[in-house]
Design brief:
single chain; 286 residues; alpha+beta; five-stranded antiparallel sheet; two-stranded antiparallel sheet; 10 helices; 14% strand; globular
């Protein structure tokens, strides 16, 4: 820990950010942690993502890609790939979660996020996603469902949870996920929800919605991020809001078969909830 702290000090000195006030602002369900730096005239965010647990190359790559597409992502001021440090633009504290808490209109916020997805999903795959990204295919989706079994179910039942039940569960998921067609693949940011979206009202158009935590982006089905936003288990939308936003999305993208997409939306929603339960069960046990 002392060595890590010294490395941070050296990185900040190289970046020209010495003699700053530093305050921990967050950590998440990973090995990353974030600090706000304040030198009285400006602020920045330090991302501390230690290798080998974290790989900031993916974050840098997706940041550069999203910047080219015209979205609001943090500017990278300095980087040390080997040690896992980034110095980032500070978007402030106005996450969608905080904006909602102080009374910013729910429809305005959510519609701005959906506008980002409409813009992204309206692009051809070659433009929307970098070539080298992995696909969010059936194998990856099943691997995430296994987290539900290995951590949540085993945490509840331990040795009483049989291999036969596990096998049946995975067989069912294999059949369900076989219903997903990936002919409309796009860039999937993967954690597109109110805690990772920033309200930047002084910016224009789709840039009002700032994006965070996209380093795990993949190529996948366009309904995934839409579902991640509207079906977040931590927050209930006002009655009718989810349906209205889905109408808004489909009206903007009539090329999609809504019946097919609604089926895939429901499947991926169930899959994501299984994954999230597994991840947070693992965090609790650890």
């Amino acid at each position: 820990m002392v060595l890590r702290s010294s490395s941070i000090d050296a990185f900040l000195e190289r970046a020209g950010w010495t003699n700053t006030r530093r305050s921990l602002i967050s950590s998440d369900a990973s090995f990353r942690r974030y600090e706000r730096l304040d030198n009285n005239s400006k602020t920045a965010i330090l991302m501390d993502a230690p290798a080998p647990e974290e790989n900031i190359v993916a974050f840098i790559k997706i940041t550069e890609h999203l910047t080219k597409l015209g979205y609001s992502v943090p500017q990278i001021f300095a980087q040390d790939i080997n040690l896992g440090f980034l110095l980032l633009e500070d978007f402030g504290d106005n996450t969608f979660t905080n904006a909602l808490a102080v009374g910013i209109d729910e429809k305005q916020l959510y519609q701005s996020a959906v506008d980002v997805l409409i813009d992204l999903h309206g692009r051809e795959l070659y433009e929307a996603a970098p070539d080298s990204l992995e696909s969010y295919d059936k194998e990856k989706l099943i691997a995430e469902v296994i987290l539900f079994i290995d951590w949540y179910m085993n945490g509840l039942f331990g040795e009483d949870f049989s291999e036969e039940v596990k096998s049946d569960f995975l067989y069912i998921w294999d059949k369900i996920l076989s219903n997903i067609s990936f002919e409309h693949e796009t860039l999937v940011l993967r954690d597109f929800h109110v805690d990772n979206l920033m309200w930047l009202p002084d910016r224009g158009g789709i840039r009002k919605c700032g994006l965070l935590d996209y380093q795990d982006a993949v190529k996948g089905h366009p309904t995934y991020d839409l579902m991640s936003l509207l079906e977040d288990a931590r927050r209930d939308l006002k009655p009718g809001m989810s349906g209205n936003l889905l109408d808004y999305y489909y009206e903007a993208l009539p090329k999609f078969d809504r019946n097919v997409f609604n089926k895939i939306y429901s499947i991926l929603s169930a899959q994501r909830h299984c994954k999230v339960i597994g991840i947070f069960s693992r965090l609790a046990m650890r």
